């Protein structure tokens, strides 16, 4: 039976935080419909200055996202021409440039190139999450394999349910490898050797193993996963949105480069923020407070605690970033 996509994102507004439930149908799989809706969701949250964080969780009672819709992958693979390593490199390189052209991309999506274009678009969507001023939190209410795990790795923070659940990359057991960014993102989270061993074996982590390896940030009872994720989203979402974006870009995009090139990325992002209206106002406040009290505000425990709670050092500057 040909693959039919029926996935959708259910969006709940909670002020500055959106809770997005991923509904991948009876098997809770991630297909093209979800990928396209996720791309549109990013358009929305990046345009809206009032949205500071997004929490993703699964609509299935025990699964965050099972894995990619295998029918989607298999059919697109069958429709694509067989190529060697050089040919594959050329195909994905062309897809990168075609995807940027709205007219050409629309035409090419009706050709055997469409699979490569879909993969390019998904990678671009995840990279947009990494460069956004919005904080993305994965509330893993259950298990996640393959693209489900890669979706979680693409988020900024991960809270996982304790219990008989698992997360990992089993693709090698299907004769393929991770294609949604797993070889790169898991490696950056837990290190080269542990990532390679996990990918080669195809065995997922238990919640305790994922926490110990640094693949998730918290493990909590299942009925508390979304609440803990929202708490993190609200806390980190209070930081200035422009600074959140700059820090994420410096870490995600600069951290994978050589030290010299990574420092270049950091300098550029720092220069943007240090010259911004918001940065200038907050630093002037800091100087005024120092002159008034005779002490550096961040060396006053009460002031530091207020700053961690509100997202900025107290003063006359804006409480919410732009």
Integer-rounded radius of gyration: 21 Å
Instruction: Classify the secondary structure makeup into a structural class.
Output: alpha/beta
The count of strands amounts to: 9
Number of helices: 14
* Uncertain parts: 317-322
Mean pLDDT: 90
Our estimate of the beta-strand percent is 5-15%
Q: Label the overall shape.
A: globular
Structural commentary:
This protein is α/β, with parallel strands linked by helices and 322 residues long. It has 14 helices and nine strands. The strands form two sheets. Strands 1-2-3-5-7-9 form a six-stranded mixed β-sheet, with helices on both faces. Strand 2, helix 1 and strand 3 (53-58) form a beta-alpha-beta unit. Helix 6 packs across helix 7 (182-190). It is globular and about 70 Å long. It starts with 7 loop residues before the first strand and ends in a 12-residue tail after the last helix. Residues 317-322 have low confidence and may be disordered.
């Amino acid at each position: 039976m040909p693959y039919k996509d029926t996935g959708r994102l259910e969006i709940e507004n909670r002020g500055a935080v959106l809770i997005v439930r991923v509904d991948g149908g009876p098997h809770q799989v991630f297909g093209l419909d979800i990928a396209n809706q996720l791309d549109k969701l990013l358009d929305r949250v990046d345009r809206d200055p009032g949205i500071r964080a997004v929490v993703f969780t699964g609509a299935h009672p025990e699964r965050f996202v099972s894995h990619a819709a295998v029918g989607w992958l298999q059919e697109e693979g069958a429709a694509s021409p067989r190529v060697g390593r050089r040919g594959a490199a050329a195909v994905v390189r062309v897809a990168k440039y075609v995807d940027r052209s709205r007219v050409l991309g629309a035409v090419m999506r009706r050709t055997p190139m469409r699979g490569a274009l879909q993969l390019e678009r998904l990678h671009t969507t995840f990279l947009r999450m990494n460069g956004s001023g919005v904080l993305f939190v994965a509330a893993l209410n259950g298990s996640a394999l393959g693209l489900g795990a890669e979706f979680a790795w693409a988020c900024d923070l991960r809270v996982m349910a304790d219990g008989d659940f698992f997360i990992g990359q089993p693709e090698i057991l299907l004769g393929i490898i991770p294609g949604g960014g797993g070889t790169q993102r898991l490696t950056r989270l837990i290190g080269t050797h542990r990532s390679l061993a996990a990918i080669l074996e195809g065995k997922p982590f238990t919640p305790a193993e994922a926490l110990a390896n640094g693949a998730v940030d918290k493990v909590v009872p299942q009925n508390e996963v979304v609440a803990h994720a929202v708490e993190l989203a609200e806390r980190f979402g209070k930081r200035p949105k422009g600074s959140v974006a700059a820090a994420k870009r410096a870490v995600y995009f600069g951290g994978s480069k050589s030290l010299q090139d990574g420092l270049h990325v950091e300098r550029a992002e720092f220069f943007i923020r240090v010259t911004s209206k918001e940065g200038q106002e907050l630093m002037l406040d800091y100087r005024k407070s120092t002159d008034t009290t005779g002490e550096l505000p961040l060396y006053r425990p009460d002031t530091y605690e207020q700053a961690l709670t509100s997202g900025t050092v107290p003063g006359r500057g804006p409480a919410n970033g732009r």
